[in-house]
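Q: For a teaching handout, I want to show students what a protein-ligand complex looks like in token form. Below are the inputs, and the small molecule is pyridoxal-5'-phosphate. Please produce the holo structure.
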Amino acid sequence: MPNPALPITLCQRSRLSGVDFDHLGFGDVFSDHMFRCEFTDGRWHSAQIVPYGPIAMEPGALCLHYGQAVFEGLKAFRGVDGVPRIFRPDRNADRLEQSCARLCIPPIDQELFCSAIEQLVTVDEKWLPQRRGESLYIRPLVFATEPNLLVKASDRYLFLIITAPVKGYFSTTDGGVSLRAEPNYTRAAMGGTGFAKTGGNYAATLRPGTDSVEQGFDQTLWLDSRDHCFVEEVGQMNIFFKIGDTFVTPPLKGTILPGVTRESVLTLLKDHGEKFEERPVSMEEVILAYDRGDLQEVFGAGTAAVIAPVSRISYGEKTLNFDVSPENLASKWLYQTIVDIQTGVTEDIHGWNRIVRTDANTSRPVESVRF
Ligand SMILES: *Cc1c(COP(=O)(O)O)cnc(C)c1O
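A: Here is the structure, written as tokens, with pyridoxal-5'-phosphate included.
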């Protein structure tokens, strides 16, 4: 069921002309409009698009005290044909539902989620950057607004979607990312909230993340909370190892964020007839494979960077180095393939893109674009 058009209040004056598209950051400039929807009296209502701006909230709002809040992250791309495409919003809608369920937040209709994003991208279409690698980052967020100091599930919520034109995430991606395996702190424990995209998980990573950066690393490599020996994920990405001719990634067992990029990579590996396994990977196995010369490559997968090749892993006294320059690395074709699908360069055989109809393209059939 397509959702009806949302009420729109346009901003008085666009801020677009003040944006330096040659020096985009990652989410420090926001587009002119945002979506908002409220939950009160047991239902979601008042869905609309309004100018981006501050929101009024009570200091007693539950989210500020006990962190009852979840978010999502996805991207819209301008295709080589000029047409905006949103990458797999249905998967984010699904994950938001899982996150909301874990945090006792009332579910959001998946079609409302997708349709709101589509209409917001249409309104701020001019904010979509043009160059390869650049995109419009989309950040849906849901948080508890009931003023109450009891530790309880809120009876009021706000659901917002904001967007930001962004460059590729890591300035260092070309040279690969360096990782420090964290020996003490962990990101998530069994039975906790590791699989949910909720703010508290990220607050807990700031201390070790800062330590990693101070010691000269880009990101923290998370190990399991019980034994500190199995690899979980890296920063805000899922991780893949190529051991011999097999790609290995840790399984989704509650402590790992189920990444949409991870899922896309697994599908592409299958399409290409590559061998892959979802199973626990210990640092011991990684080091043994490295020492035998069997560890071909390591890369992270997430919406922000798409695919980030890993150049170095430090684990206690041990340092593993990887040459990320060869053109035949799997991380390179995976990156190319995903970006080519996102930008309409290659055929979207799995139907991952949600094509945005704008005034400019409603007149011609987008499906007939040639590859
Ligand atoms: C968002 C996120 C990922 C990647 O998920 P994508 O859907 O691919 O962007 C991986 N790990 C963590 C901790 C994340 O927050």
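A: Two things your students might notice: Residues 363-371 have pLDDT under 50 and may be disordered. Residues 83 and 361 are 7 Å apart (CA to CA).
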